[in-house]
Design goal:
about 170 residues; Immunoglobulin-like; 9 strands; about 15% helix; elongated
């Protein structure tokens, strides 16, 4: 007796007349369009306008310091005023400090970012949060850490190394 599958033609997969590949392609296109539409847009004009400027556009004045001694080292906050004499707003500034010993020889040099100070030093924020506009003068703070105990406790030699400005 010959074996006959039930139902007849059971070994052949059923053929559908519905265009499944076309439907899958349509769904893929809709998902791609939705993804591109809902993704955050980037303002390329704004991101390409960052420039490294001449550090001389920032002028430091009224320098004060506040050292905190702990164990064999000190943390030193430098306070003062900064003026932007350049044509662009400054969103970052790196300030170098050379701390010296009692004989006037350099013992440590550190580079740290400048912060804008508000409310007599109670609040400090990065310049990127509120850039220093051309012609503006504001109070600043730079915090230096791990200064050796044998420093001369005089204000360090300060210099602005790098300025980042936005057009």
């Amino acid at each position: 007796m010959e074996h006959r599958p039930y139902p007849p033609n059971a070994t052949k997969p059923p053929q559908s007349k519905f265009p499944w590949p076309l439907l899958a392609l349509g769904i893929a296109v809709v998902l791609l369009v939705a993804t591109l539409w809902l993704s955050p847009s980037v303002n390329r004009a704004a991101t390409n306008k960052v420039i490294k400027n001449n550090p001389d556009q920032l002028e430091l004045s009224s320098i004060n310091m506040s050292p905190q001694e702990a164990q064999a080292q000190a943390n030193v906050n430098i306070f003062g005023e900064v003026s932007n004499s350049g044509p662009q707003a400054v969103s970052n500034a790196i300030v170098s400090a050379v701390f010296k010993d009692k004989n006037g020889r350099p013992i440590v040099t550190q580079q740290k970012p400048m912060q804008r100070v508000r409310n007599a030093g109670a609040n400090a924020e990065d310049l990127a949060m509120d850039p220093l506009k051309p012609g503006e003068t504001t109070e600043f703070r730079v915090s230096y850490t791990d200064i050796p105990q044998n420093w001369n406790h005089k204000p360090p030699q300060l210099s602005v190394l790098q300025v980042t400005a936005r057009k």
